[in-house]
């Protein structure tokens, strides 16, 4: 039993027993109050007892949680790539099947990008309002649904309408890129996001493989139908896809966001930080204003980045969509055997394979170059090299 000494009188002391819960290995000359004991029993609360989503992502590092998310979002990106590359295959195939003019083939490709143009800002606004996960489910469902309907299209007009809806849905596919970036530490973000582009090349190559197997034997309808099947299978992967913690924090759903963050630490095998998840100091209304992009701080970046993206997309899709025309020197349509009475293009599949067989390996070197290179200089040299390659191709094959 511990004791304390209390002074009573001039030089007399008396022994007073202490309670068990307030026992101390040292001798006290004065007993603490209950409130003081409770304060000493728990750690002091300071600024480190709360953390934001950014702090949690940096503390969790790069682990199994990010790898799983990398694969799931990559599969979704590959599905979008399949539908986009289908344009370069479907156009020449329908030219032979329905005897379309060059303008009609070009219009069929154009409407997909018109839908993409309309869908991208729409799905971006909706994902900030309702979250990333519902957008993934809706977008994949729409792409697969309108993909199946395209295979049943009776006329050219129906193909135009349905591909417009597919393009509108594909506009929301970029949410997978955004979601992945939200879970990546700053140290690894550039390398991982560059490597993430490999899935786009994988999806494109997979679509070419389907065309090689299906188009000459069964025709374009079965190719479109087969291209939509993986999208339905990918819907089951959404069960393992977490919601964006930044969206949950902005929507004041802190308990759900903290549950996801704790699961991220558990999967990565990292001890979670002490304290509780809190919102950032910047208010959500100010951070979500679109006009904030044109403020003095971000104005130059807002102008330059869309310009660079426009040039990159113009060059990329120009090469991809014209690949079949570049590698073909004549447009020959033929009719297959009576067993499979469909019209096809003789050189279509071979041309597409030649144009995209090397695509999966292209983003891989960038994963390592970006880790130590100046990104502005690298972007400059990348554009310069691309321009020189296209220029050389023109002089090498002018017709």
Automatic annotation (TrEMBL):
Membrane topology value: Multi-pass membrane protein
Pfam families: Sugar_tr (PF00083)
SUPFAM superfamilies: MFS general substrate transporter
Chief localization: membrane
Annotated signal sequence range: none
InterPro entries: MFS_dom, MFS_sugar_transport-like, MFS_trans_sf
The Major facilitator superfamily (MFS) profile domain, residue ranges: 69-399
Keywords noted in UniProt: Membrane, Transmembrane, Transmembrane helix, Transport
Membrane-spanning parts: 69-91, 97-118, 130-149, 155-180, 192-214, 220-238, 303-324
Gene Ontology terms: cellular component: membrane
Subcellular location: Membrane
UniProt cross-references to PROSITE patterns, sorted A to Z: MFS
Keyword Transmembrane: yes
A single GO molecular function term of this UniProt record: transmembrane transporter activity
Record-stated family: Belongs to the major facilitator superfamily.
Annotated protein name in UniProt: Synaptic vesicle 2 protein
Lineage per the UniProt record: Eukaryota, Metazoa, Spiralia, Lophotrochozoa, Platyhelminthes
